[in-house]
Amino acid sequence: MEDNLISGAAGHEMMQDRPLPRHIAIIMDGNGRWAIRHGLPRVLGHREGVKALKPIVKECSRLGIEVLTVYAFSTENWARPAGEVNTLMALLEEFLDSETPELKAQGVSIRTIGDIGQLPVSAQAALARSRRDTANQSKMVLNLALNYGGRDELVRAVNRWLASQPLGGVLPALDVDTLAQHLDTAGLPDPDLLIRSSGEVRLSNFLLWQMAYAEIYITDVLWPDFTPEELQKAIAVFRMRERRFGGHS
């Protein structure tokens, strides 16, 4: 299901002339299937998925990617067995506590999108520490989508806008730019490239507004097996594509 790369010197030269994506978004899918394939409990698949994220963050920072947004926990994931949800929350805290110093050293600032207030108190505290400790880093943003759903974000954005309006007056028309300023991603560029691992071909309620003109790259590779080399493949395909944003071909 992966795109075929254009080979040859001409294709390589064309690719080199085109910019890297400013913002990469990743749906990190396939942890459970990876575990089943290896005869392991699903929770170990999630642990391997966390391990796989670390070199991807490092590679994006090395390449000069401005923003990396990863779909870590969706609003729908609460429907999973309680034990699995608890493991995911524990892995989040473990990742933040162990990796924040290294991320800070790499110049990475940690941000979040989603309704973080619904997460366990200990996870909220870990996120607050990591955001505080990396707040002044400016090389790259690592944007963690937690308790995130695209539809939920749009509803919360409209409610934020409504709350900002004076009481009793006639509401002004809500335009595209104003709504964007009230999204969780306000101040960040929209994703240029969406990567989804495990071969699934859907957005799964991820960044529905922001994905309007993102290039989409699907790979059959399960997330724990996704390496910096796989990331490079996705970026190479992105750089080969003509981006017209609704204009003429």
Question: Would you write up a description of this structure?
Answer:
GO terms for molecular function: ditrans,polycis-undecaprenyl-diphosphate synthase [(2E,6E)-farnesyl-diphosphate specific] activity; magnesium ion binding. With 249 residues, the protein is α/β, with parallel strands linked by helices. The chain has one domain (16-164, 173-240): Decaprenyl diphosphate synthase-like (Undecaprenyl pyrophosphate synthetase, 3-Layer(aba) Sandwich), CATH 3.40.1180. It contains eight helices and six strands, in the order αβααβαβαβααββα. It has helices at 9-16, 31-37, 42-63, 82-105, 121-133, 150-164, 176-180, 228-240, and strands spanning 23-27, 67-74, 108-113, 140-148, 193-196, 215-218. The longest helix is centred in the middle third of the chain and has 24 residues, at 82-105. It is globular and about 60 Å long.
